[in-house]
TrEMBL record, chain A:
<dbReference type="InterPro" id="IPR005572">
    <property type="entry name" value="Anti-sigma_E_RseA_N"/>
</dbReference>
<keyword id="KW-0812">Transmembrane</keyword>
<feature type="domain" description="Anti sigma-E protein RseA N-terminal">
    <location>
        <begin position="7"/>
        <end position="78"/>
    </location>
</feature>
<dbReference type="InterPro" id="IPR052383">
    <property type="entry name" value="Anti-sigma-E_RseA-like"/>
</dbReference>
<keyword id="KW-0472">Membrane</keyword>
<protein>
    <recommendedName>
        <fullName>Anti-sigma-E factor RseA</fullName>
    </recommendedName>
</protein>
<feature type="region of interest" description="Disordered">
    <location>
        <begin position="182"/>
        <end position="202"/>
    </location>
</feature>
<dbReference type="GO" id="GO:0016989">
    <property type="term" value="F:sigma factor antagonist activity"/>
</dbReference>
<dbReference type="InterPro" id="IPR036147">
    <property type="entry name" value="Anti-sigma_E_RseA_N_sf"/>
</dbReference>
Automatic annotation (TrEMBL), chain B:
<feature type="domain" description="MucB/RseB N-terminal">
    <location>
        <begin position="25"/>
        <end position="208"/>
    </location>
</feature>
<feature type="signal peptide">
    <location>
        <begin position="1"/>
        <end position="19"/>
    </location>
</feature>
<dbReference type="Pfam" id="PF17188">
    <property type="entry name" value="MucB_RseB_C"/>
</dbReference>
<comment type="similarity">
    <text>Belongs to the RseB family.</text>
</comment>
<keyword id="KW-0574">Periplasm</keyword>
<dbReference type="InterPro" id="IPR033434">
    <property type="entry name" value="MucB/RseB_N"/>
</dbReference>
<protein>
    <submittedName>
        <fullName>Transcriptional regulator</fullName>
    </submittedName>
</protein>
<dbReference type="GO" id="GO:0030288">
    <property type="term" value="C:outer membrane-bounded periplasmic space"/>
</dbReference>
<keyword id="KW-0732">Signal</keyword>
Length: 202, 319
């Protein structure tokens, strides 16, 4: 069947008259249309009659590539994510500044962890924080509309939590330092304590 | 009969071997304490936890008047120095104006007990002499300080066989996971104290602070469970410096490890347990029925959780 179809195409090339029916079938079928194109190309090459650049079916390839191109969608999505991130950063900024003012040291202790969070969120649950969010909060099926406020809230909670941990760690270190003092005071400073006791009734 | 006697012999020899190893470990640790207190040394070390490294420089010396002089500096980030002249320890930190306190040791990355009587730990920890290896280009003796119960981490020490000084330290979980380590990167033992220590001897240290007497107010909360051997060495009410949150505070110590417990009312009704590990230091926080409990210390998170869960209203109504 297909053999005869190509014979028709071949015949048409050589200016043999064909049935109208066959002619229609050749025109309507993609395969034979391609054959037709190829035969002409072969003829052109044989006659040394090719156009300057052989386009083959570049036009269709390009059209297809554009249609399938994934990068067309990606910039839009990125913009969206960046916008939400920027909002979170804006929210986070005041806290960050407070933290810097309060203690550069505290930041030094946990700073690396927080910067890592921004870079690689995935690693956080495994390495630093375990059971950070209630399990239900993560498993909740959230619709697209609610996703970004939820994420922002979670980030906010995360920042709060990091601040809390940082403050506790710094305070613990401070108290340990001071405990060395009180131990010392209780060892050789009994007289001091007594003096204070005597002082109070007066 | 022969078989039994030979078995007995084997058993007794192995027991005595273990006992000997423990004794050996203890004498190594005693030597460590002696070396840390009497030698003039100049050393650098790096504290490695999670994905960060903190480098320190440490000078120690004893001058002609038998006064111990010490300088411990953090080399990265804002200046953080600790100076010690005998019983006066000065802290130079970015958060506070420089201050001095009366204490007989520096609180730093190296536990103070290593410079004191190590036998104070014997109730809660076992000392095991493990083997030899090469650390910092020197032959080192590895000593493990292993908790007698499962509620604490293990402390490993690599000691210089020549001087008895530490070359490396590590905190290890019971499963053998490394949490935090201190690697010495340079060690120099000299006959006389370093020049910077002589300068310190002549320098004037900041005013010694007298701490306000801890209030004898009744405490509303008490800890009902702690691993064996932890004793309360401090309790007070204060505000957490960074958050200004008023807390009821208790500090416990087993000779080697400090645990802080914070209790305060919270705006949240309920918050599930959250924690982070900063090296080997766990910071755990939870809110139960509007009461926030936090536990901080170099202990496993499971232990911290058990302590946090044991918080209850003080039955005695204060002390």
């Amino acid at each position: 069947m297909s053999e005869s179809k190509f014979e028709t195409v071949s015949g048409l090339m050589d200016n043999y008259k064909q049935d109208v029916e066959k002619l229609d079938s050749v025109l309507n079928e993609q395969e034979s249309a391609q054959r037709w194109e190829n035969y002409h190309l072969i003829g052109d090459v044989l006659r040394d009659d090719t156009p300057e650049s052989i386009r083959l079916d570049l036009s269709t390839q390009i059209a297809q590539a554009i249609a399938e191109e994934p990068t067309v969608l990606a910039p839009r999505r990125n913009k969206f994510i960046q916008a939400t991130k920027a909002k979170v950063v804006q929210l986070a900024k005041p806290f960050g500044q407070v933290a810097i003012a309060a203690s550069a040291a505290g930041l030094m202790i946990l700073g690396v962890q927080t910067t890592n969070v921004a870079e690689n969120e995935q690693s956080v649950p495994h390495q630093q924080v375990i059971q950070t969010y209630p399990i239900a909060g993560v498993a909740d099926p959230v619709s697209l509309n609610y996703q970004s406020p939820n994420r922002a809230a979670q980030k906010q909670a995360y920042i709060e939590q990091q601040r809390r941990f940082q403050a506790l760690l710094a305070d613990h270190n401070q108290q340990v330092k001071l405990s060395a003092v009180t131990k010392e005071a209780s060892n050789n400073g009994e007289t001091q304590a007594q003096e204070q006791v005597e002082d109070t009734p007066k | 009969m022969k078989l039994i006697s030979s078995l007995l012999l084997l058993l007794s020899t192995s027991f005595s071997a273990i006992a000997m190893e423990n004794e050996q470990a203890e004498s190594w640790l005693k030597r460590l304490s002696q070396s840390l207190n009497t030698l003039n040394f100049n050393t650098s070390f790096v504290v490695v936890k999670n994905n960060q490294a903190e480098p320190y420089h440490w000078f120690h010396g004893v001058d002609e008047t038998n006064t111990e002089l010490e300088i411990l500096s953090l080399l990265n980030g804002p200046r953080r120095d600790v100076l010690r002249k005998g019983q006066v320890v000065s802290y130079i930190e970015p958060e506070l104006p420089p201050y001095s306190v009366n204490a007989n040791h520096i609180s730093g990355p190296i536990p103070a007990i290593y410079r004191q009587d190590i036998t104070a730990l014997i109730e809660n920890y076992e000392f095991i002499s493990v083997g030899r290896s090469r650390v910092l280009g020197k032959s080192a003796q590895l000593i493990r300080i292993v908790s007698r119960d499962g509620h604490r981490f293990g402390h490993w020490l690599w000691l210089d066989m020549e001087s008895g000084l530490p070359l490396k330290m590590a905190l290890i979980t019971r499963k053998g996971q490394l949490l935090e380590q201190i690697q010495f990167t340079h060690l120099e033992i000299t006959e006389k104290p370093a020049e910077s220590l002589n300068q310190l001897a002549n320098a004037e240290l900041p005013q010694v602070l007298t701490l306000p007497d801890t209030e004898k107010q009744p405490f509303a909360w008490q800890v009902n469970w702690l691993p064996e051997g932890f004793e309360r060495i401090q309790s007070n009410r204060h505000r957490v410096t960074q958050t200004k949150q008023p807390v009821e505070f208790m500090l416990f110590n087993d000779g080697l490890v400090d645990i802080s417990v914070y209790v305060n009312p919270s705006a949240d009704k309920q918050r599930p347990m959250e924690y982070v590990m900063n090296g080997a230091t766990v910071v755990l926080n939870q809110v139960n029925n509007g009461i926030e409990v936090s536990v901080v210390g170099k202990i496993p998170s499971v232990t911290a959780k058990a302590i946090a869960d044991s918080i209850a209203p003080n039955a005695a109504g204060g002390q």
